[in-house]
Design a protein that fits this description.
Length: 343
């Protein structure tokens, strides 16, 4: 199909971290505004000329190098105005790509550990969204598994508080270094999500192996799996995922940039699709991986040999697997029908 048609495609994104949308130039500007040298507080590309716009290392040495960079960047968000600006910029970037619905992961527990009052977080997020009413966003409040179970329980309470003031929290998330703490320790997140009336979306099978995916399915009963590419390494798990309709949030460029997959052409997305696994395509942390959702969809078109109807079907699957309101889901389907008709 003509790749240029992706520009007008009504889009849905289910896996993008809010703090992972902070451009290096934005983080550097925040640091300079406080009188700090960006090079001393950020992890930047050492090869970049001083006269060029700051950028993150690319590719990263490994996953921990990425985490170090991610945390240094998000630590530059110090005030409610900073967070509102980041949120508005994220919504603006999504709207510019024609994204109708985004589910963005936000690590409120980390912000609280830095001294933020929860209400200040919610007000800043709401202000950022209000400035860009041309796209709709739901929040997944996650807990990094390597911070432990007590922090995870606090994340649940933060989600409860955010829902109480009307923030559109749609799910709990489980992120961080896979294997740092057994999945079984977080089994309570399923009942917590059910009590709050929201979803549960853990990362699994990104840096960990098939057993992390299997344990997540058995112990967490998730609504979707973040990444999940290790599923392709195990034939039994692959068949199970297809048979049970497990939805994976696949982020191809992220996997390559972090060295988890050798190249886009080696990515297991095609094997997953051919086995019948339900896939969605996402950007994860766009400026860190020098990508956008539109770029990821273009990769999917090439890697999966998609024509226009199949590309539209990919977005239909995303909206159907989302936690978006029913009316918005219907609107996206209608918009996709119109896009297909506009040949």
């Amino acid at each position: 199909m003509d790749i240029s048609r992706i520009a007008t495609l009504p889009k849905v994104e289910l896996h993008v971290h809010l703090e992972g949308t902070i451009a290096a130039a934005t983080a550097a500007a925040l640091a300079r505004g406080r009188g700090e040298d960006p090079a001393s507080v950020l992890v930047l590309d050492a090869a970049a000329d001083a006269a060029t716009e700051p950028r993150y290392p690319h590719p990263f040495r490994d996953f921990l190098h990425f985490v170090e960079t991610f945390l240094a960047s998000s630590a530059q968000v110090r005030t409610p105005a900073d967070l509102a600006t980041v949120t508005e910029a994220f919504a603006a970037a999504q709207a510019a790509q024609g994204v109708r619905w985004s589910e963005t992961t936000f690590t409120a527990v980390t912000m609280e550990q830095r001294g933020w009052e929860p209400r200040a977080l919610w007000e800043a997020l709401a202000a950022g969204l209000a400035a860009r009413p041309d796209t709709d966003v739901g929040f997944i409040l996650d807990t990094p598994r390597d911070l432990g179970v007590d922090v995870a329980r606090r994340a649940v309470e933060l989600a409860r508080d955010a829902l109480g003031v009307g923030l559109p929290v749609v799910a709990l998330g489980l992120t961080g270094v896979e294997g740092a703490v057994p999945v079984s320790e977080f089994a309570f997140l399923r009942s917590a999500a059910d009590e709050l009336g929201i979803g549960l979306v853990p990362h699994a099978g990104e840096t960990g192996g098939p057993d992390v995916v299997r344990d997540s399915l058995d112990l967490l009963r998730p609504d979707r799996i973040g990444h999940g590419i290790a599923t392709a390494q195990d034939a039994d798990l692959l068949a199970r995922a297809a048979g049970e309709g497990v939805v994976l949030e696949v982020c191809p460029t992220s996997n390559v940039t972090l060295g988890l997959v050798g190249s886009l052409d080696e990515h297991p997305i095609r094997r997953l699709r051919d086995a019948g696994v339900a896939l969605t395509v996402n950007s994860d942390d766009p400026p860190f991986f020098a990508t956008t959702l539109s770029d990821e969809l273009a990769h999917a078109v090439r890697l999966l040999d998609l024509d226009a109807p199949r590309l539209a079907a990919l977005q239909r699957r995303a909206i159907d697997a989302s936690f978006a309101p029913a009316e918005l889901r219907a609107d996206v389907h209608t918009a996709l029908d119109a896009w297909l008709a506009d040949e």
